[in-house]
């Protein structure tokens, strides 16, 4: 049964990594053509509040360097720093084997992406689930193989992504971390800081990925994207330079520095525009995701002609690029700039539903667009009223505030907007923007 499990696991990794989520269109045979190492460090001393980290020569050192010799290793890295790419490379090393492989001597390699294990009753069922549906192996077969096999390496990718789920699998993962389960197996866990498990075996070794410097970025571009096309490499480098968010994060080393940069970026208005490239939009969305995950307040998000629709069922704004803006838990102000005169009340209500899903939102503002004088269905505004979210409108040079209880627009002084004032604002807005 051991050889059957090994065979089916290898087949599973070929399928799994044919379309890995973070790295598009990469298969196991081609992984080595795209894997570029960034900085890797190991914690060598942790006395008091002072941590001392030292560089590791290569990703192979994760298993081979005596400083990190242990059956339990935790790899920490921020989003986009290469955790999943590293697990892909480890799977490749095991599949191919031979001289230079860091996994020589490992009989069974089990790689699992934790976020995909929701609803599975045990760690053994997780392994079973990763095999083909017509596998001849049962859960008991897998248990027995693992009980008898002398050399097993577990790689659990994205342990922090399972924190919110209460289940037997979570208990199994905690038991593995604390070396109560599979104490004789090697286990490598990946997680995003600051979500390093507080409870783990005293013998655990901590490793972190520190990102990519300019030389490594260029190496990746040439190896993966531009295939040594100097002109193309330079064009993409210029795009990165035009993207202050992505550029800043690509130059960052430690996770502490990343968070300080994210806080600085989020203290100022963050812009998403329809003229932005998808690269820039993805980078901006990534910053917002980091901020939300780490409870960093985003002062203001400004959407410039960027909205295509609202997916109410998922509390997401679909951008004109096709990318999606999820509900923002730490956003303070949402500003929507759209030169439009065809917004229906239902469309605006969908935007209000999205706004209400943003946990700490204080206001949502619309500018350079035309609005109905009154919203007839004020019940759809009740959640905004309960959360004390202001709705503001800047049709031209004057601002108005929506009375969420009556559905009418008002001056900031509290007096209701008249029909004459509405017509005047419409005329002025059309003069400023003839396309309206």
Automatic annotation (TrEMBL):
InterPro entries attached to this UniProt entry: NACHT_NTPase, P-loop_NTPase
Pfam families assigned: NACHT
Domain NACHT: 78-226
Name assigned to this protein: NACHT domain-containing protein
Source organism of this protein record: Stichopus japonicus
Phylogenetic lineage: Eukaryota, Metazoa, Echinodermata, Eleutherozoa, Echinozoa
């Amino acid at each position: 049964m051991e050889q059957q499990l090994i065979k089916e696991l290898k087949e599973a990794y070929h399928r799994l990594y044919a379309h890995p989520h973070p790295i598009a269109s990469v298969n196991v045979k081609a992984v080595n053509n795209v894997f570029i190492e960034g900085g890797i460090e190991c914690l060598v001393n942790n006395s008091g509040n002072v941590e001392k980290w030292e560089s590791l020569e290569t990703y192979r050192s994760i298993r081979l360097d005596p400083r990190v010799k242990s059956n339990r290793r935790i790899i920490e890295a921020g989003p986009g720093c290469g955790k999943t790419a590293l697990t892909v490379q480890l799977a490749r090393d095991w599949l191919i084997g031979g001289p230079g492989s860091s996994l020589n001597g490992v009989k069974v390699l089990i790689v699992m992406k934790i976020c995909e294990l929701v609803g599975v009753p045990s760690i053994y069922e997780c392994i079973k689930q990763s095999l083909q549906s017509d596998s001849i192996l049962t859960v008991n077969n897998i248990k027995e193989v693992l009980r008898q096999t002398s050399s097993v390496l577990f790689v659990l990718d994205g342990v922090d992504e399972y924190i919110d789920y209460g289940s037997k699998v979570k208990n199994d993962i905690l038991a593995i971390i604390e070396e109560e389960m599979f104490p004789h197996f090697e286990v490598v866990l990946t997680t995003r800081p600051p979500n390093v498990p507080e409870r783990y075996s005293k013998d655990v070794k901590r490793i972190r990925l520190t990102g990519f410097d300019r030389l490594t970025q260029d190496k990746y571009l040439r190896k993966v994207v531009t295939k040594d096309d100097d002109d193309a490499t330079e064009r993409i480098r210029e795009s990165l330079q035009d993207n202050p968010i992505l550029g800043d994060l690509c130059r960052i080393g430690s996770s502490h520095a990343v968070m300080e940069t994210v806080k600085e970026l989020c203290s100022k208005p963050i812009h998403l525009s329809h003229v932005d490239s998808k690269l820039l939009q993805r980078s901006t969305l990534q910053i917002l995701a980091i901020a939300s995950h780490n409870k960093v307040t985003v002062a203001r998000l400004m959407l410039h002609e960027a909205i295509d629709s609202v997916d109410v069922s998922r509390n997401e704004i679909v951008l004109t690029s096709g990318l999606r803006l999820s509900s923002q838990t730490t956003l303070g102000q949402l500003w929507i700039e759209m030169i439009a005169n065809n917004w229906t009340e239902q469309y605006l209500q969908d935007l209000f539903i999205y706004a209400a899903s943003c946990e700490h939102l204080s206001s949502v503002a619309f500018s350079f667009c035309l609005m109905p004088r009154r919203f007839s269905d004020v019940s759809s505004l009740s959640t905004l009223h309960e959360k004390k979210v202001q709705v503001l409108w800047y049709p031209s040079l004057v601002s108005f505030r929506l009375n969420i209880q009556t559905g009418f627009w008002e001056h900031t002084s509290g007096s209701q907007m008249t029909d004459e004032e509405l017509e005047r604002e419409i005329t002025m807005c059309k003069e400023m923007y003839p396309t309206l």
